[in-house]
Amino acid sequence: MLPFVIAGIAALAVLLITVGIAMSSGSAIAGRLERYASGREPGAGTGTGNQSESVVVAGLSRVIERQDLATRLSTDLARADLKMRPAEFVILWAVTPIILVGFAFAFGLVIPGFRNPVALLVIFLIGLWLPRFYLRRRQARRLKAFAQQLPDTITLLANSLRAGSSFLQGMELVTREARPPISEEFERVVREMQLGVALHPALNNLVRRVASEDLELMVTAIQIQSQVGGNLATVLDAIAHTIRERIRIHGEIQTLTAMQRYSGYVITLLPVGLAGVLFLVSPTYISVMLENPPQMFGLPMGVVFFIIGLISMAIGYVFIRRIVDIKV
After folding, report:
1. How far apart are the two ends of the chain, measured CA to CA in Å?
2. From CA 97, how far away is CA 105, in angstroms rounded?
3. Alpha-carbon 229 to chain mean position
4. Block means of pLDDT (10 residues each) for the chain, length 328 residues?
């Protein structure tokens, strides 16, 4: 079975490269746009490796841009602040499991359990999951940093308005005085407005990139004030106070529920991790579960019990998460 697994992985890699090359026969305009977007001079980067990489990325970009996947990936990459195109992330997504399987197969020289087809399949699935997990983690970390800086930023905007500055001047002040990631996002808003984008679309683009409820509250208040009038500085002060109180209460809840959340992690991951270690170190200890008979529903009894245990742990984890997930 092992040669078939390796052959399937190699076939997937060859298929991705073939699709990219097949879709690379674009016009001269597309090639010039590609060079402009990549920041290279027309005569630079004439090496074979760079040309092949550009051809594959450009071809794959044209393929996924016809689907909704490109829009979703562009939004996710912007929220995570990853300077990558959707096609580059898709290539990374496809290559990661192949690289992990290759390392596991090489490491199997030391621990033979890593060369087991089941272990290679699990590592391949982990490789498929890892890029999305990294993307989500970057999004969550960046969103948390943005939320912590937002109240002080709103107060800075309110004080700038009281001093007689315009809203655009206030945002320029934020780009100079604040720290990333909030300074970077407001700098993008300022650049969009300088290029001719109106205030409302620029702020809507900011909300789409950040996906923060607090930021959406601030943008909604600004848009309403621009239509009905009023003292925007006072409104921003009230919003900043609300966001600070929400962050404080959320921090207290996270502290009070920390033990329950980590208990859910340990209860869920400890049995699975221990079974994986035993399977790699001593495969014969786990292989008894796969023997047939005894059997149930046409499967070995050990496999049935293992599936029931996984389902039970998943249900328990979901219940723990629902209990400690308190909305503020």
Report:
1. 52
2. 12
3. 39
4. 59 59 45 44 46 54 57 80 81 85 81 76 86 90 89 91 88 88 89 87 87 88 84 89 89 88 87 84 77 71 83 88 82
What the block records as the tokens of 124 is 């391949």
Beta bridge partners of 300: 295
Is there a contact between 123 and 104 (Cβ–Cβ < 8 Å)?
A: yes
> Of 143, 123, 165, 3, which is closest to residue 81 (Cα–Cα)?
143
Give the separation between CA 140 and CA 280, rounded to whole angstroms: 33
Compute the distance between CA of residue 177 and CA of residue 159 in angstroms, rounded to an integer: 13
Q: Measuring CA to CA, which residue among 248, 265, 250, 283 is closest to residue 111?
A: 283
Q: Which two tokens stand for residue 158?
A: 């309110």
φ, ψ of residue 300 in degrees (nearest 5):
-60, 145
100: nearest Cα among 88, 118, 85, 114: 114
Measuring CA to CA, how many Å separate 220 from each of 34, 155, 178? 37, 16, 22
The residues facing 295 across adjacent strands are 300
Query: Cα dist. 86→33, 73, 92, 205 in Å?
Result: 16, 6, 10, 18
Q: Read off φ and ψ for residue 299, nearest 5 degrees.
A: -120, 155
Helices (H), the chain: 2-22, 28-38, 48-64, 68-80, 86-107, 117-162, 167-177, 182-194, 199-210, 213-228, 232-256, 258-281, 283-287, 301-324
Closest CA to 122 of 290, 279, 317: 279
The string of DSSP letters for 9-40 reads: HHHHHHHHHHHHHHT----HHHHHHHHHHHT-
Bin 90: left if φ > 0, else alpha if -120 < ψ < 50, else beta: alpha
